[in-house]
Specification:
The complex is a heterodimer of chains A (513) and B (119).
Chain A: H1 2-7, H2 9-24, H3 30-34, H4 36-54, H5 58-66, H6 70-90, H7 97-105, H8 117-135, H9 140-160, H10 165-196, H11 201-213, H12 219-233, H13 245-251, H14 254-279, H15 287-309, H16 314-335, H17 339-364, E1 365-367, E2 370-371, H18 381-384, H19 386-400, H20 406-420, H21 424-450, H22 455-458, E3 461-462, H23 467-495, H24 505-512
Antiparallel strand pairs in A: 1-2, 1-3
Chain B: H1 2-24, H2 31-34, H3 53-79, H4 87-113
Classes of the chains: A mainly alpha (513), B mainly alpha (119).
């Protein structure tokens, strides 16, 4: 119990933060309301330190016993807290913008019933808690609750992100399709429970091992696994659950879109790894599961990239690019232990940073208080906002996988993992897709840097707050610097990726308390 | 095949029961019997009146404490059977205090939000 509580220290820190932020957002004092994103970022940094504390020294061994895959719990939590701190900078000044402006100008008295900033940041932190909890899920119920804790706040965040009908439409779509996906993977979980007679992953993998040694994995378990994968695929926007992405990403404000690009995706990837870890990659994934993942990976990459080619809106383009990146992630998920899980973790971090950077640039620009839409709006950005133009070019280059940027390192590990796992054809398709994606990423590099300013792009201004710009520059710096660290981190992450075998009954019982 | 029989039986049971009630029931009406059931109160006015949104917010706040009571009852029944000094009892006490703490925070939040202001 005490060990378990210690392991969840970062989540507890963030929970305290969420509560504080929710109440502080109702304060009649403007300075306190203004400080909310800063408080959120502060709690995320404290949680980051808590992750480092929990996974250092002797405590690391204790943490390793309690979690399904120690590397996930350690590294994904650490990276998530960092990326989320970056994301919280993007939200400065977006929520309640009109209300705060009216209050400041004296046109309106501050009314807590109308304010939403505190709630927004509380939901932000709660969703992060959900993702952190996913990484240490030891049974299906925990995993389900953690996944839903990740998703439910995001539906509200999309609706609150800006006062427009499109945001509400996006939230509606996102919510209903999200409920559908939850029903699908929950049904899958139920079938898995029926097939193995247990909810706990370590016991489940023992049951699967026995079935493999006997008559093979039964049909019920295979159907359950396929449903679980397809349902969780919604979180990472993988085909066939990808169709919401473009509309939802476009409808939400840019800071929330950046959030949607990383947090649910990371939760989905982690959940898939944990569920597949219960079956085990050793001796091959069951045939129907492998086929589903394989088809999903190929279709996700291809549809994502082709969809992105057809877009004129930057946000829709990045939404389809986000779908394509989920396809790359699936290569690592198919490859499994050894390099696969390491590659997935590295890629999640890389994608989180570069995606945040790209959306930070979008969040920093506006035309008369409205978000910019088209690629044309970025033309000649270099002349007016050189730092933003360079940051966007670096992040887009990294998303493309241009060496030596961060995205290249992530993709390299994924492809190596795929080849080592014998999925050469899949890697070749991935490489072809990378080449296709060059077309639209190079537009994002070229238009701001090389393009001449047009009458249309002259009307684009930077937002009043400087923090989104700071986040864009920070992300660009990380995109350049992290590859140096990544090569040294990879072996350390690798050490923690082994799927834990069924523990002895005593410690399993202790873990359950 | 057994499933088919089960389906036919289930549907048949429902249909037969509904039809039988209609045919065999005495069917005595009356003004009191046909009026809307409002937990024993006499219904008045139309049911399609609009309420102020405050009522709903207040009802949600009520739910927080309603659910809390549901959890407190079984807790109280088990806790009295425990040795108050033992580590397990302390753990149980800590858990329920944390739980109550969360609802107190919910209460503070609702109060600051102005849910109880009625002007």
């Amino acid at each position: 119990m005490a060990d378990r509580l210690l392991l969840l220290l970062p989540e507890l820190v963030l929970f305290a933060g969420a509560v504080l932020v929710a109440v502080a957002g109702l304060s009649p004092r403007r300075e306190i309301r203004r400080a909310l994103p800063g408080i959120t970022a502060g709690f995320l940094l404290v949680a980051m330190a808590a992750v480092a504390f929990v996974h250092s020294g002797e405590r690391a061994a204790v943490a390793a016993v309690l979690t399904p895959m120690p590397a996930l719990t350690g590294w994904v939590r650490l990276a998530t807290c960092g990326i989320a701190a970056l994301l919280s900078l993007l939200t400065v000044g977006t929520i309640d913008r009109r209300l705060e402006a009216d209050v400041q100008a004296g046109r309106l008295d501050f009314n807590p019933l109308m304010a939403g900033r505190g709630e927004f940041h509380a939901f932000f932190l709660l969703s992060i808690i959900g993702l952190l909890l996913c990484t240490s899920a030891t049974d299906l119920i925990w995993l389900f609750v953690a996944l839903e804790l990740t998703s439910l706040p995001t539906y509200v965040m999309v609706a609150m992100s800006r006062p427009s009908r499109r945001a509400q439409e996006a939230a509606m779509k996102y919510f209903f399709l999200g409920a559908l996906s939850a029903a699908i993977f929950l049904y899958g979980f139920a079938l898995l429970y029926g097939a193995t007679g247990t909810l706990i992953f370590s016991e489940m993998s023992a049951a699967f091992a026995a079935q493999r040694a006997g008559d093979g994995i039964p049909l019920v378990a295979n159907v359950g696994l396929v449903l679980a994968i397809v349902g969780i695929g919604y979180k990472i926007a993988a085909v066939p659950m990808h169709f919401y992405a473009a509309d939802v990403y476009e409808g939400a404000a840019a800071p929330v879109t950046a959030f949607l690009g990383y947090v649910p995706k990371a939760a989905g990837a982690v959940a898939m790894l944990i569920v597949l870890g219960a079956v085990g990659w050793e001796g091959g994934l069951p045939e129907p599961v492998l086929t589903t993942l394989w088809m999903s990976a190929v279709l996700t990459m291809t549809l994502g990239n082709i969809g992105a080619l057809l877009q004129k809106s930057v946000k829709r383009m990045l939404a389809y690019s986000s779908i394509a990146h989920s396809g790359y992630l699936l290569i690592g998920i198919i490859a499994g232990p050894g390099l696969g899980i390491t590659a997935v973790i590295l890629y999640l971090v890389a994608y989180g940073v570069m995606n945040t950077g790209a959306f930070a640039v979008l969040a920093s620009l506006e035309r008369r208080g409205r978000e910019i839409e088209d690629v044309e709006d970025l033309a000649g950005l270099r002349h007016r906002h050189p730092a933003l133009a360079v940051a966007l070019a670096l992040c887009a280059g990294s998303l493309l996988g241009f060496p030596p940027l961060l995205g290249f390192v992530g993709k390299l590990y994924l492809f190596i993992a795929g080849v080592e796992a014998g999925q050469v054809l899949l890697v070749v398709i991935g490489a072809i897709n990378s080449a296709i994606s060059a077309w639209y990423y190079l537009i994002l590099v070229g238009v701001p840097i090389l393009g001449a300013p047009t009458a249309r792009s002259e009307t684009v201004d930077a937002v009043p707050s400087r923090w989104p710009r700071v986040a864009a520059v920070l992300a660009a710096v990380l995109v350049v610097l992290l590859p140096i660290v990544a090569a040294r981190l990879a072996p350390r992450i690798d050490a923690g990726t082994a799927v834990r075998a069924a523990p002895d009954p005593a410690s399993a019982a202790a873990a359950r308390r | 095949m057994p499933i088919l029989i089960l389906i036919v039986m289930a549907i048949g049971f429902a249909v037969v029961n509904t039809v039988a009630t209609h045919l065999l029931g005495p069917g005595r009406g009356g003004q009191a019997k046909e009026s809307t059931y409002e937990s024993g109160m006499n219904p008045f006015g139309s049911a399609r009146r609009r309420f102020n949104v405050r009522f709903y917010i207040l009802a949600m706040t009520f739910l927080v404490f309603d659910v809390e009571i549901i959890f407190l009852y079984p807790w109280a029944v088990t806790y009295t059977k425990m040795d108050p000094g033992s580590a397990e009892a302390m753990l149980y006490l800590g858990r329920i205090l944390f739980f109550i703490g969360t609802s107190v925070i919910a209460y503070i939040y609702a109060w600051r939000k102005g849910v109880f202001r009625w002007d």
